[in-house]
Amino acid sequence: MENTSRWSRIKSYWNRPNHVAYIFILPSLIALLLFAFIPVVIGLGMSFFNVNIFFNGTKFVGLQNFVRFLSDSRAINSIWHTVYFTVLETPVQVLVGVLCAAALSRNTRFNRFCRSTFYIPVVCSLTAIGLVFNMLLDPNIGWFPHLLTRIGMTAPDFFGNAHWAMPTIAFLTVWKSFGVTMIIMLTAVQAISPSLYESAEMDGASRAQQFFHVTIPQCIPALGFCVLTNLTGSMQVFDQIFVTTGGGPNFKTESTVQYIYNRGFAAPYELGYASTVATVLFIIIAILAVGSNLYMSHKEQQMR
Amino acid sequence: MKRTNKHSVLSDILLIIVLISVVFPFLWVLLSSFKNEADIINYPPKLFASHYTFSNYTDIWKTIPMTRYIINTVIYAVGVCAISVTFDSFTGYALARMRFRGRTFFYYVIMVTMFIPFAITMIPLFMELSKFGMINTYAGLIIPHATTAFGIFMMRSFFVGLPEDLAEAARLDGLNEFQIYFRIMLPLAKPQLITLTIFSLMGSWNDLLYPMLMTTDQSMRTLAAGLALIGGQHITYYGPVMAGTIISMLPLFVIYMFAQKYFIQGSAMSGMKE
What we know:
The complex is a heterodimer. Chain A has 13 helices and two strands; from the N terminus they run ααββααααααααααα. By secondary structure, chain A is mainly α. Chain A folds into two domains: 2-46; 64-303, MetI-like fold. Chain A has a two-stranded antiparallel sheet with strand order 1-2. Chain A is globular, with a radius of gyration of 25 Å. Chain B is mostly helical. The longest helix of chain B has 33 residues, at 238-270. Chain B contains 14 helices and no strands. In chain B, helix 9 crosses helix 10 and helix 11 (190-206) runs antiparallel to helix 14. The chains are: A mainly alpha, B mainly alpha. Chains A and B meet through helix 2, helix 4, helix 5, helix 6 and helix 8 of A and helix 1, helix 4, helix 5, helix 6 and helix 10 of B.
């Protein structure tokens, strides 16, 4: 008897929404704690240690890894390559996405077909897309270099030439992911209230003026989101480089994540130093994210 | 009126150029995957071959353990999907519909994780898993992805929009909170659950770096990692790599054909600010 009443008390305690809520969120919180928050702390902490993958000879080295980073030309270069990739990829991707969204805003059959088709590359993996372009642009078997030769141009070795490799990688990344920007911008454009256009028209605004004074300001939050996710994604570029150039020729396309991978997960397996490089990248990404966020909200207020 | 026409002609030309450049690479690989190696490496390259063959598709099975890779990828993708959709909808529901102390705090704590770059967590995750002896196991592949801030965000945005009296009526009928959730709320969220399922499947199926780090054993590799390792910079035989690429893209492509609107919805959702 005693037992059942205690049981029912427990039951009624946990049946109140303000108590049971913790049970609902507990699994996610544990997972995020173990696999997001703790790893960040470990990652930042490890950058002050010498640790290898076999966990022998672990020792605290203070800022030594950061000093080493500053004179490690391959690490510094990897950051420059990553920045170069981001500078090439992000603006073009956002621009192509926005242009397609603008061109496809009306709901015709052709436009709907285009929307679905442009999204197909988004569904495929960067690995597969990387391989496709690797073969399509291959100087021996690729159709595209052949086409260029046919119209009288000399086709470069797109992935083999240090000059061309990074722009080519940026191109295939744009090709793969502009569909996301397009969909997000289309959703934003379609969410604009028609009354805004009507009142602009009554004020005598031309179509171009309407575009610049109604469409663009209304889409700034969505645009900001696209730029932000693109920036942070591009700064961690890995897959497409790994399958196309592998960082070559001569490490000329090696990205930072790839360098972290090569330092930590290939000989000499220096997880500590690799974490130092990761920490530097983390700080750069954080600055970029906060910076672009502030800039966008400033712009948004300006336009209002 | 003339201006509008000019504008639409220009945009149509742009669209057709983009359309061709999107479709052509797929068509080319699909066609080439049915050519024999001699036709593939023949110079000058021809778009169409004189005859077609399935041999690349059988060869890829001889080159790499395809069946193993496919099974691994399915277990990884479905495992992650089942667990994360369950946890995410639990959390999203609680954050949206239950008042409890610390609700806003927990919401922000969870959303912050959306901005943690994988670059900083990849080494610690590897260390955690190797301490737990979970390298080269399905558990190691799946459990760290048990929840995503994006999924929680998505489910919360949906549940927030439901009317308050729905749960109240059920409470008066004597249903407990779990029954309310499973019998009333979850069925209403079906479209969102499908979208989340698809996004989760897509994420794991296409993932390269994470499964590559957490598996060193050939027999535990996923399709993306396996393909990346044979199809890297120096390809020996093109045909089988093309066939492998097509096979790796096919499942999601088929799902996309049938469930397009859920893919689009998921992308559209991600860009929404509250």
